[in-house]
């Protein structure tokens, strides 16, 4: 689920209604479904001993039960705050939002999907000999 969400988000299909649930949301949905199965499994019992829904994806507020959609944020804060460009070319000028902000382009950027004209604003961890520190 996590990898599919990431793939769809990268492909600019980030509208929430089009994304599959997060792992946290899926867990809560499974817990609610499991609780429903417990209830249905006891439908022929005269006085069933059914557990509280509280540990099964539900929480009580104002004497009413509400589904817990998730207990986790939809994405790490760093991803939510991430700058991404919509460039379709090489990101060689300051028209690129990432370059303009002094940031390398990432997998979220449109330009990183281009194979014909690869992005020129990618992070490089290669250090030139002139830039190396002489610690000896």
From TrEMBL:
Domain (Tesmin/TSO1-like CXC): residue spans on this chain: 80-125
- InterPro entries, sorted: Tesmin/TSO1-like_CXC
Domain of life, source organism: Eukaryota
Protein name stated in the entry: Tesmin/TSO1-like CXC domain-containing protein
Give the species this sequence originates from. Answer: Pocillopora meandrina
